[in-house]
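Researcher: Good morning. I'm working through a list of sequences from a screen, and I'd like to move beyond sequence-only analysis. For each chain I'm collecting a predicted structure so we can compare shapes side by side. This is the next one on the list. No need for commentary yet; just the structure.
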Amino acid sequence: MKVLVAYATAAGSTVGVATRIAAVLRTHGHVVATYSVDEITDAAGYDVYVVGSAVHDQAWLPSGAAFLSRERRTLRGKPVWLFSVGLPGALRGPLRKWAGLEEPAILAHLRDDVTPVEHRLFSGVVRAEMLGKVGSLVFRAVGGRFGDFRDWQAIEQWAGAIAAALADIETTAR
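Model: Good morning. Structure tokens for this chain:
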């Protein structure tokens, strides 16, 4: 199948996730194009879409959300998987409870434009300079940690599950 993996990234963490998803789908025999949502002028011509964005303030980046809105007619009736890259792995202490609220908040903003087969929230990279001096101090004070929290095994397993679903779709279409 012809798959578009599109992403909106703020500091590069999401492009890493998108690239890994695309690589796994290729190993399962799919033709995969990987682009930033800012590079895509027309998303037509694909059988399947995997779209992701970095998350800021419990919402996708404006460019990611705008892509879904702009391409909603193209995406309608097609299998669409969504992924978000946020903070869950960086949170501990009282903030850990907040992480469970992030995914429903993210999806609430996106469901007007697309009904995904599935959405997955992954942890990304969190650096002090991303939050600014004050934000960094507050983040640490409430139990946040800095580092690369991407779980490559979980990302690859999810991409493998997408590939298995696509195999089922291909079988049904025959």
